[in-house]
């Protein structure tokens, strides 16, 4: 019985380790704080500015990236299919355009370096001094 408990606990730990932590990042010059609500509004096209009124440019990772799936699930509380349907409707009706998609963490960091209004997310393991972490999930 103890062996079964140990095996179940080990399996639970491995599943948890498979889910990478996501870091929401901005340009180091950006002084804005963001909440989960702010992120939801920004990445669903319901807002285009930070709390202080300055422009915000959300950046998504490309579909298929593990961090993208984690962000969609943990922050936006939607699956990739739900988000695709959501954006298809907004684009079709002319009421919005989805955030720009970038290939990988390095592309997000490069875009943040070039645009102080940009906000994106990367795997926590990719965080370095070129970005400022404003939230983790």
TrEMBL record:
<feature type="signal peptide">
    <location>
        <begin position="1"/>
        <end position="20"/>
    </location>
</feature>
<keyword id="KW-0732">Signal</keyword>
<protein>
    <submittedName>
        <fullName>Phosphate ABC transporter substrate-binding protein</fullName>
    </submittedName>
</protein>
